[in-house]
Amino acid sequence: MTTMTIAKAINEGLRAVLANNPKSLLMGEDIGPLGGVYRVTDGLIGEFGADRVVDTPLAESGIIGTAIGLALRGYSPVCEIQFDGFVFPGFNQITTQLAKMHARSHGNLTVPVVIRIPYGGGIGSVEHHSESPEALFAHTAGLRIITPSNAHDAYWMIQQAVECQDPVIVFEPKRRYWLKGDVDTQAPGLADDPFKAHVIREGQDATVVAYGPLVPVALAAANAAEDDGRSVEVIDLRSISPIDFDTVTESVKKTGRLIVAHEAPTFGGIGGEIAARISERAFLSLEAPVIRVGGFHMPYPVAKVEEDYLPDIDRILEALDRALAY
Amino acid sequence: MGATHLPSTEFDGTEVDDQLEAEAEAAMGEPDAQMVQLLGPDGTLGSDPVFSEYAEKLDAGKLRGFYADMAAIRRFDQEATALQRQGQLALWVPLTGQEAAQIGSGRASQPQDYIFPTYREHGVALTRNVDLSELLRQFRGVSNGGWNPKDTNFHLYTLVLAAQTLHAVGYAMGIQRDQKLAAASDPAGTEPPAAVMAYFGDGASSEGDVHESMVFASSYNAPVVFFCQNNHWAISVPSAVQTRVPLSNRAKGYGFPGIRVDGNDVIAVHAVTEWALEHARSGKGPVLIEAFTYRLGAHTTADDPTKYRLSSEEDAWRAKDPLARLEVYLRAAGLADDAFFEQVKADGDELASYVRRTTHDLETPDIRAAFANAYVESHPLVAEELAWFEQYSAGFEEAAEGAAH
């Protein structure tokens, strides 16, 4: 076991990818000598050279589009998009090209491109630097979407994303980049399947599902509820597409109540999808409506008021109160 | 190559182009050079200081082959248009008028090169030995692709304009890496150098992806040839709305050669493309070719050109027909006789018959294949929805069996 930050864990995961897979390469803006704006690729260009760690022109469609071409030639590109709000110039390439290539070629072509996107708020930044656009990608068949919440998962999930033959988007919780945790670099252990949700805290009275940056918040809320005599189960969803509904269903059948928390706006979001599926799978077990805790239906607000926008411990506790009042 | 072939401000196509040409020349001065042309519209062979040597390598068999290819793809185009009119295809994208641009460039490629077409490159497909009936699958609604690109190094058609230009540059970046890996493991390797060709049109030239692809290609010196067929019309919008200077001039801004070639002159197109591919394969970087041609037919079978252009303009371009001029040349030079042209016609009829037959025989796929190909690896949601679909479908079968009793 080694203790490291999430950023360092991804850095080590990428180092392992580059060392083990000669056809892998990293692409992105400022990922070379600078090591990325969050230093996630720090030191890698020195170790693997400029053909494997490619500083690209400042063009997101260009990054994704050329990555598709490299993948068609047999390479495994890992693209870094600098910030969540900057992925949209590449949205066309991701949704109309990358996601559909395998299907439209009758399975003859595979494009195992990985796209890393630091996402989410809470860092006091300027606009377009704090968003959570995961639902826009989850709606597109052909893509897989995962998001680690801790260093051990981050180390393994980035490697599993590269091994996967489908395109994978890895949403990285940027405000947790400096969160430290124990990493077992020898074996993934429970993290052997990146598309499986993890029950990270057991409870009896209600289930809270969260992912990425809100996992520590959900855990803190569950601990606070414990002081009030409420036993709350917490699930780290880990994968947004596919979603491990089996694990969520099993938990809800036990607890009867479900809260889904994410930073993204609730409308048209992942929470709504989970609520609908669980109402079909566990209707008779539900003691209360599924409650979503998330962002509001507005453009991401300015940094000085983002604390009023982002779900926090109290917002999750308030939702728990409502669920338990039924 | 020398400065002689820097593209000119010569627009010479439509009335609006004539006006633009005057404006451009007023602003930029006289053109540096005319576009590259070897075989004129009247069928006489001219010369060029750079490209004649490529033309001289073409023997009679090659030249007859160019004619046969162009005639075959024109016949195929007519047949596909007819099939659409008969309701056998949902849509067709005709290429008539652009045969020389496509056959000349496609025949300059080598098997190890990789081609990214847009959606009108039926002639290029022919040169890559794609079974032409497979091109019709997409337009009959039984496939979104139709052929396996790995068999021919001819990628699937791309309908979101210009997206494929970036794929081409990425693929070329992969070739560069492959060559380094091969050189490291086997210094005496015999793998022939390869290049990539990216096809697009005057309309797509306005897409941001074309700009980004040229920036990336230039930055990494990627072995890619951008082949722009300027057919003068992006559906109903004339090329003058896409650009105020010859498209080939844009290469200057990216720092690689740009050449305008007479796109109705198969000999010049072949020569220029062969030069450009050699340039790219030998590590000298990208080239932009603008093939100056004309879409004689509609954009698609759903289009109506009478609403936006004059028939006199079409007539002016018919006079520059790529097949007619090559026939004049072949006959005058004694390289082909009546028997050859009769055989070409007979082969065309046979091709049309084959295409008609195979189109009728195209099987409607099972939607289960779409479930299977949504992802490479197993996916629980897809599996769940497929299971539901099977159960739902079985319900109808049981109901039908019940009704039969």
What does this protein look like?
The complex is a heterodimer of chains A (about 325) and B (about 400). Chain A is of the alpha/beta class. Chain A folds into 2 domains: about 1-190, Thiamin diphosphate (ThDP)-binding fold, Pyr/PP domains (Rossmann fold), CATH 3.40.50.970; about 200-325, Rossmann fold (3-Layer(aba) Sandwich), CATH 3.40.50. Chain A is built from 12 helices and 14 strands. In chain A, the strands form 3 sheets. Chain A has a 7-stranded mixed beta sheet, sandwiched between helices. Chain B has about 400 residues and is α/β, with parallel strands linked by helices. Chain B is about 50% helix and about 10% strand. Chain B has helices at about 15-30, 50-55, 60-85, 100-105, 120-125, 130-140, 150, 165-185, 210-220, 240, 250-255, 265-280, 310-320, 320-330, 340-360, 365-375, 380-405, and strands at about 115, 195-200, 225-230, 235, 235-240, 260, 285-290. The longest helix of chain B has 26 residues, at about 60-85. The termini of chain B are far apart. Classes of the chains: A alpha/beta (about 325), B alpha/beta (about 400). At the A-B interface, helix 3, helix 4 and helix 5 of A face helix 8, helix 9, helix 16 and helix 17 of B.
